[in-house]
Write a structure and sequence with these properties.
InterPro entries: 4_helix_cytokine-like_core, Somatotropin/Prolactin, Somatotropin_CS. The protein has 228 residues and is an all-alpha fold. The chain contains eight helices and two strands; from the N terminus they run αββααααααα. Helix 2 packs antiparallel against helix 6.
Length: 228
């Protein structure tokens, strides 16, 4: 009987922990919100970005092995985010101010919502291939993760504003205003083939790695001394 009650208590604790872990983040203590410190919010978005990059890397690698097993296919550099000015190494990223780096992160995340939705739609049309069915599910997963991460970074920016660490001008800029229409329309064609899918995955892996690294650098420049 004691063992049964122990199991019940463990399950209740796990259920409570899951509900607390999924509570929405807020900075003002509204009902139903979980108030987190800025360091905690940074940790959450960094963990999410690392997971997102890990999935994108695995998906890109598996895609290459399945469709191009005998080729070392190089991305054709048609990434639609090339118009977003991003620091190319750690030193340059550290030279960016907190505001500029936060804006770059939000731009990159905002620019991927439509292309990933297009990738999911295109892959889900071909259900005859088991791999495409698998990849379409993964594409949907990372599409949701991008939106969740962007919401988390937005909350992080709001918290930084409240603490006087960020100006009030940080906001979202439409990706259409950042890149030539010809590059953006590449992802809005009616049909995408396997090479197009590869290019999307290649570009997203690259940009998700940037987001992950920029968030870590932003944390260290904002809260120095915390695992930096």
């Amino acid at each position: 009987m004691k063992q049964v009650w122990f199991v019940v208590l463990i399950l209740a604790y796990i259920n409570l922990s899951m509900r607390v872990g999924t509570a929405p983040i807020c900075g003002y203590g509204q009902d139903g919100c979980q108030v987190l410190s800025l360091a905690d919010i940074f940790d959450r978005v960094i963990q999410q970005s690392s997971r997102m990059h890990g999935i994108s890397s695995d998906l890109h690698s598996q895609f290459e092995q399945y469709f191009f097993p005998n080729k070392n296919l190089i991305g054709k550099q048609r990434c639609h985010t090339y118009g977003i000015l991003t620091p190319d190494d750690k030193e340059n990223a550290q030279r960016f101010g907190r505001q500029e780096l936060t804006e770059v992160i939000l731009m990159l995340l905002g620019a991927w919502s439509d292309p990933l939705s297009q990738l999911y739609w295109s892959m889900s049309q071909d259900q005859n291939q088991d791999f495409n069915h698998y990849t379409s599910n993964k594409a949907l997963e990372i599409t949701d993760m991008v939106q969740e991460l962007r919401d988390g970074v937005t909350k992080m920016a709001e918290k930084m504003k409240l603490e006087g660490l960020l100006g009030n001008t940080v906001g979202y800029i439409s990706p259409e205003s950042l890149v030539p229409s010809s590059a953006f329309s590449f992802y809005k064609r009616g049909e995408l083939d396997s090479v197009d899918h590869h290019d999307l995955l290649y570009c997203f892996r690259r940009d998700s790695n940037k987001v992950k690294n920029y968030l870590r650098i932003l944390k260290c420049t904002t809260l120095p001394g915390l695992d930096c």
